[in-house]
Specification:
Layout: H1 6-19, E1 24-31, E2 36-42, E3 45-54, E4 57-64, E5 67-78, H2 80-87, E6 96-104, E7 111-117, H3 118-124, E8 134-141, E9 146-151, E10 160-163, H4 166-169
């Protein structure tokens, strides 16, 4: 039996979310060194998903309307190879093309899925840092029902949002 690595855990989190819904029927499609791509079909459509993860959670406090709230954030880095895979051969016509960012801590006991539309994810990846890297930052403040996300060069208030519960976005919620 081959050794199970961290990425396998994160793929399992994503697939488990689909399997535990009433409409999911996933099938592993492809993998690369640092990420995996899966293709699956449900009663609500066909999906093509690129999955990345981060175990580096940053916890802080922010003041919103005079109230202190907990802020969680993750920076998910994308290598040039990741970007080229997403840019060129990734899109599959007649499928919902998505990027799933698995956000957790090192103990893996706090895990969230941020499922982004492909177009929004690529907007976040257009620019590089000074060191030549690309990234998507995911944040959650307090008990909000959405994640905020943005890329390099965005001001934090220019964020986009995606629902905290990915089953609705994937058409899996009853």
């Amino acid at each position: 039996m081959r050794r199970i690595n961290k990425l396998d855990y994160f793929i399992g989190v994503f697939l488990s979310t689909i399997i535990n819904s009433s409409n999911g029927a996933p099938a592993l499609f492809d993998e690369t060194e640092n990420s995996k791509r899966i293709e699956f079909a449900t009663d609500t459509g066909d999906f093509n998903v690129y999955i990345k993860y981060s175990t580096k959670i940053v916890e802080s406090k922010v003041s919103i309307k005079g109230e202190r709230k907990k802020k969680l954030s993750w920076n998910i880095s994308f290598s040039e190879k990741d970007y080229q895979i997403l840019k060129d051969p990734f899109i599959i016509k007649n499928k919902k093309n998505l990027v799933c960012l698995v956000c957790t801590n090192e103990k893996l006991n706090v895990t969230y899925l941020a499922v982004l539309d492909y177009v929004d994810a690529m907007k976040c990846l257009e620019r590089k840092t000074k060191s030549g890297n690309r990234r998507i930052t995911i944040t959650r403040i307090g008990s909000e029902h959405n994640f905020n996300f943005y890329g390099v060069g965005f001001k934090e208030h220019e964020y986009m949002q995606v629902a905290l519960d990915p089953t609705g976005f994937l058409g899996l919620k009853e």
